Amino acid sequence: MLEQGSKLMDENPKVVIFSTWTRFLDLIGIALDRHGIKFLRLDGSIDSRSQDRCLSDFSTSLNTNVLIASLQTAGVGLNITCASIAFIMEPHWNPTVEAQAVDRLHRIGQTKKVWVFHFVTPNTIEEKIIHVQNKKKQLAQSTILPTMDWRELLQEILSS
């Protein structure tokens, strides 16, 4: 993540790092501190007033360009259009949770191209989650496009 981020930081963009796990956010925060990178954090332990202040500080600060956030907390009802880069640190079982989080950057008022990076470790449960996500997306599409065999897709998802 730090390697990918440093390549993109030449333009000094705002970055949001999403994770499902607050313990992983702790570790990311430690890594950012070690590299002298200032950041703000948004997760479910923060009350709504503090969340608003955090987002306001993130959007206006010239010195803090990184926001680490839980997918669930930052995934709904927020506007983070000041950011143009998102890192999804691990896949979520529900692909719409990830999509909603990324959509916080893709809102009315976004003037920059948004870059989204997904991290998946080979030969881990993450690969299986990606497979299930893809099958869920196909199943959702099959409700729209009746030519797909939704029963077969559902069976494959359930057997994963």
Automatic annotation (TrEMBL):
GO CC, alphabetical: nucleus
UniProt keywords, alphabetically: ATP-binding, Hydrolase, Nucleotide-binding
Domain Helicase C-terminal: 1-151
UniProt cross-references to CDD domains, sorted A to Z: SF2_C_SNF
Alphabetized InterPro entries for the sequence: Helicase_C-like, P-loop_NTPase, SNF2/RAD54-like_C, SNF2_RAD54_helicase_TF
Protein name (Swiss-Prot/TrEMBL): Helicase C-terminal domain-containing protein
Keyword Hydrolase tagged: yes
One record GO biological process: DNA repair
Lineage: Eukaryota, Fungi, Dikarya, Basidiomycota, Pucciniomycotina
Coiled coil: none
A single GO molecular function term of this UniProt record: hydrolase activity
Pfam families xrefs: Helicase_C
